[in-house]
Amino acid sequence: MTRAAADIPADNALLCENCGYNLTGLPPDGNCPECGRPVADSLPQLRHRATWEQTEPLGGRMGRFFLTSTAVLFRPSRFYRTLATRLSTPRERLFGRIYFWIASMLFATAAAFHLDWFLKLTGTRFPLILSWLILVILTDGFLVGVTSLAARLSSWEAAYRGLRLPLNVVRRGMNFHTIHYLPPGLLATTTVLGYQWTLHKGYFGADSATVYLYLLCGEIILSAGYLFWTYWIAMRNMMYANA
Question: Which residue, 169, 170, 133, is CA-closest to 151?
Fold first, then answer.
């Protein structure tokens, strides 16, 4: 670990943001000797605060929040490629907190209705709203804990590999990454509530439970893959960041 840490590039070293080659001392109009990308593509001036963190009007606070949300969700590579990484702001943390709660409520809704369906099969009753509230708190704690653990592990692995990804940079990326909990949460909630609705309408019978459970298992696997893919996009576009 000590040897790897000594290989981590200095904070003021100019790295090629495509391959990580040290460009310090090369002219801005030159190219990276390793991958051939222009040095100008890696200049610190290309990175800036997220729209949500800026103070210009841009449609007001809600407008900035919406613009940042859509940028992270639909164009994550571009967002993280232009995000200033060496700072920490209250709005960045608030962004993460908001989506932690939204995701927790979605997952808790899916879990509460799924539990209610299962308890009805066994003839057991438990207040739905109470189970939902408990699950919101538990889910929020779980998501925060898993995200924090992932950030620490990412920073440790980066240090071992000699990559410039300190914990504060990883945490900043993960705060914005929380919006990617939204699609899996919406998918799970839609599936569970949709299945409950079809049962209520009589479109499906009790014999459809196996298909329903397999569908949920498949969605868990797909969601895990999606979350890792978007996480990797974030880390890949931040590991050689120069600002």
Answer: 170
pLDDT tens digits for 20-67? 899 998 998 899 998 889 999 999 999 999 999 987 656 688 889 999
**Burial tier of 139 (Cβ tally within 10 Å: 0-12, 13-18, 19+):** buried
User: Considering the entire predicted model, what is its pTM?
Assistant: 0.90
pLDDT tens digit sequence for 115-164: 999 998 888 889 999 999 999 999 999 999 999 999 999 999 999 998 99
DSSP-derived letter for residue 83 is B
Q: Report whether 29 contacts 40 (CB < 8 A).
A: yes
Cα–Cα distance, 199 to 237 (Å, whole number): 45
* Residue written as token pair 């969605």: 219
What are the backbone dihedrals phi and psi of residue 237, each rounded to the nearest 5 degrees, phi first?
-90, 5
Rounded to whole angstroms, the Cα distance separating 224 from 34 reads 34
